[in-house]
């Protein structure tokens, strides 16, 4: 049942939780490498979701194809996403990383227009072009021959999350609940990351208690709870972009948290590129859909 008011609440709640991931990942990332950190985060989320799933008696995938799609959603939205996101943010500020991730709504809308027939206007395509020009500013601000590799890592993470949004939409259309999608996707991601970082748990045992608590918080709250709210928002949305466009709020909240928690002050490249990207996403949200 679609309910726009409920959709807005779920989406806003997700963004507020996700914004905490940027500064906290930078904090814990000083104690753990990117892949082990992602492994701990996904494993904590998977354990939590398995318990929730058992209580709710979730169903097994209906077909082998659906099982593959759930596994692919986990690989895109959590497994490989964690690797690229955690690696990228180590060389970026929280604000810059969140701005790059904020390109996800326009990527998703562009893909959804091709896959699901959600039409875009000329203004929508112009906004998409401007957003990616803003990414170019972030990449090249320090010099035309010096590309910020952290932005490239994070941009790939944004592409992967776009793929997750599209798969999430399809799986819900096929009758899977938010808890079912999240549980199987997170289990898949955990398996991928454990294979990539078999030493993750020994690394986790060696870090401080505060870092351990923050890593578990990111797993249960930022991953399990926030992504569940995100999936619930899709259940009440008419179009994919109705939900994903809320991601343009993330840089604002993240910049505030980055300053409060890490005393990060955005540089001019972040300001100029960020204004281009966020303005483009706002314009796309208001005028980007064809009537």
TrEMBL record:
Pfam family, one: EamA
Source superkingdom: Bacteria
InterPro entries for the chain: Alkyne_AA_exporter, EamA_dom, EmrE-like
Cellular component aspect of the GO annotation: membrane
Keywords annotated in UniProt: Membrane, Transmembrane, Transmembrane helix
Stretches that traverse the bilayer: 7-29, 35-55, 67-84, 90-111, 123-141, 147-167, 179-201, 213-231, 243-262, 268-286
SUPFAM superfamilies with a match to the protein in the record: Multidrug resistance efflux transporter EmrE (SSF103481)
Domain EamA: 8-139, 149-285
Family listed: Belongs to the EamA transporter family.
Protein name: DMT family transporter
Organism of this sequence: Baileyella intestinalis
Lineage start: Bacteria, Bacillati, Bacillota, Clostridia, Peptostreptococcales
């Amino acid at each position: 049942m679609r309910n726009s008011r409920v959709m807005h609440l779920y989406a806003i709640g997700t963004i507020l939780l996700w914004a905490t991931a940027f500064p906290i990942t930078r904090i814990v990332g000083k104690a753990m490498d990117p892949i082990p950190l992602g492994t701990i985060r996904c494993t904590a989320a998977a354990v939590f979701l398995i318990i929730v799933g058992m209580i709710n008696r979730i169903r097994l995938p209906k077909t082998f194809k659906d099982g593959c799609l759930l596994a692919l959603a986990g690989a895109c939205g959590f497994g490989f996403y964690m690797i690229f996101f955690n690696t990228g943010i180590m060389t970026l500020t929280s604000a810059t990383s969140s701005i790059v991730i904020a390109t996800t709504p326009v990527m998703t809308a562009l893909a959804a227009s091709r896959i699901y027939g959600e039409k875009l206007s000329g203004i929508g395509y112009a906004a998409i072009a401007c957003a990616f020009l803003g990414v170019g500013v972030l990449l090249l601000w320090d010099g035309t021959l010096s590309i910020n590799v952290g932005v490239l890592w994070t941009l790939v993470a944004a592409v992967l999350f776009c793929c997750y949004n599209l798969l999430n939409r399809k799986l819900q259309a096929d009758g899977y609940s938010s808890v079912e999608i999240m549980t199987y996707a997170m289990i898949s991601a955990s398996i991928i990351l454990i294979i990539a970082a078999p030493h993750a748990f020994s690394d986790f045992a060696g870090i401080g208690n505060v870092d351990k608590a923050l890593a578990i918080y990111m797993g249960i709250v930022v991953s399990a709870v926030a992504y569940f709210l995100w999936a619930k928002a899709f259940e009440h949305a008419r179009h994919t972009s109705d939900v994903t466009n809320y991601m343009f709020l993330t840089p604002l909240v993240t910049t505030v948290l980055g300053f409060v928690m890490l005393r990060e002050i955005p540089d001019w490249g972040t300001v100029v590129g960020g204004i281009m990207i966020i303005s483009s996403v706002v314009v796309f949200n208001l005028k980007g859909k064809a009537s």
